[in-house]
Queue: 2 jobs
Job 1
Amino acid sequence: RKEVEQDPGPFNVPEGATVAFNCTYSNSASQSFFWYRQDCRKEPKLLMSVYSSGNEDGRFTAQLNRASQYISLLIRDSKLSDSATYLCAVNGIRRALTFGSGTRLQVQP
Amino acid sequence: ETGVTQSPTHLIKTRGQQVTLRCSSQSGHNTVSWYQQALGQGPQFIFQYYREEENGRGNFPPRFSGLQFPNYSSELNVNALELDDSALYLCASSLGGGINTGELFFGEGSRLTVL
């Protein structure tokens, strides 16, 4: 089983839609969780950290479910500019952040 | 921009050759991590350096090696290149040194093609 797993998508949604991604992790001792955004052929950039109580940043909401070992990202009112690959990252067992393979989002006009 | 710079941005090598990639970390960051990202995959952890010592390593063979210098800049060396080494190599700097629980600041990467 991979340490971090994501549905690769692509998720094709119309502008204005709400879309949600999940990411499961295998290491129950993980303490830090993040969502990164990666545009095509660019480097990953931090979108938001994920806190135990859940957190919101504008149209983006991140949640953590420790019991089921997954994190989620909700995007409301999708914009064309949200089209990207969304990577979840979890602090893993080798002193590093472990990334999922990413979920590709395509927002269509 | 993150302030993390990598060089070269693109390079082409042939099988069996050796390559050195370089990274300057963001000012004040003492930890550098290297990741390999193959097409369509997420970044895979290669290793991490803190205070000039390797303090964490992923599932990569010994022909992947690195250095960190007193100014926290870093190099990734890959010997005996294989076709599967073709990927985007990302350097990330951060604070903390121990188990990495903080945000990573990535450079734009070095895209390596092995023919």
Job 2
Amino acid sequence: KNQVEQSPQSLIILEGKNCTLQCNYTVSPFSNLRWYKQDTGRGPVSLTIMTFSENTKSNGRYTATLDADTKQSSLHITASQLSDSASYICVVSANTGGFKTIFGAGTRLFVKA
Amino acid sequence: DAGVTQSPTHLIKTRGQQVTLRCSPKSGHDTVSWYQQALGQGPQFIFQYYEEEERQRGNFPDRFSGHQFPNYSSELNVNALLLGDSALYLCASSLRGLADYEQYFGPGTRLTVT
């Protein structure tokens, strides 16, 4: 069964600290993995996109890693800011020739001053 | 260049009623996908429209239907509303033939069923 599991479910950190969010998936055959940031009540905004051959991708203070062998990805946030408070969703697509995209439930990050 | 727009922003309906949500895709995009996102959950795929036809469908009942117009805009209709239909409804647009990660999301419509 195609699944995307994220951990932790929620996380509280102090402003300026770093954190790492995890994503494990069983989607196959693998096509690409994306991390989105979603502010409360808003649509998701893409942070990083990685295909099979990529194992790291950065976007400012956000760095995503991908291990296609273990089917794991992580999103590392450096020097967190209050505006980083949001849900972070891991999305994995399968290369089936059709539309097969699985969303994780997300990690809710709270950054406190 | 306008991004994906959705209307209305918020909506309150009563059980048993019907609702129509609207989406205008990003300029240049021809494919629209709809998602339902319950509170604290990830988005769940409802269906996708291209060339005015439903091309893919997720695990949603027939109470959920849609339409795409010649200008690529789309509507999502939900009949016989249930309390469990309360959610954020997201529209995403893309260009057919490009990778699925070239997909942009709208701000969503928050539907509350009482």
